[in-house]
Specification:
By secondary structure, the chain is mainly α. The protein contains three helices and three strands, in the order E-E-H-H-H-E. Strands 2-1-3 form a three-stranded antiparallel β-sheet, covered by helices on one side. A hairpin with a 7-residue loop joins strand 1 and strand 2. Helix 1 runs antiparallel to helix 2 and helix 1 runs parallel beside helix 3. The longest helix is centred in the first third of the chain and has 35 residues.
Length: about 120
């Protein structure tokens, strides 16, 4: 049984939802936004390091190309997630100048800012 204090409200929904769901979605979005670009860059650096240690000119050129591609992919992933969050923040009706105590679904899931059921 779910405790009432662990429930959150979401505009547009007839029922409250468990707070673990939006918090998990927010955590996954944050991991995608930060961890995946870091991992891509680290793998690119490792590939380049292996090529430098092997002292093979052809392998170094290929590793440089892969590193550049991975850095671009990392930036693309980071900025696509950030832009989607920004667009949803603009479209979020709770960002309007009203003193509503309820948070919207967008704000709850994307930014992790949910209003608890009282």
């Amino acid at each position: 049984m779910v405790n009432v204090l662990d429930m959150v409200t979401c505009n547009g929904l007839a029922a409250s939802i468990d707070s673990i769901v939006p918090n998990t979605v927010h955590m996954v979005v944050t991991i995608i936004k930060i961890a995946i670009p870091i991992i891509l860059i680290l793998f690119g650096m490792l590939d380049l390091g292996k090529a430098v240690m092997a002292n093979d000119e052809k392998e170094m050129k290929e590793s440089q190309k892969r590193l550049i591609k991975r850095v671009l992919y990392a930036a693309l992933i980071f900025f696509v997630v950030a832009i989607v969050q920004w667009i949803f923040a603009i479209l979020d009706p709770s960002n309007a100048n009203d003193s509503s105590t309820k948070s919207s679904c967008i704000n709850c899931f994307i930014n992790g800012k949910c209003t608890k059921v009282s």
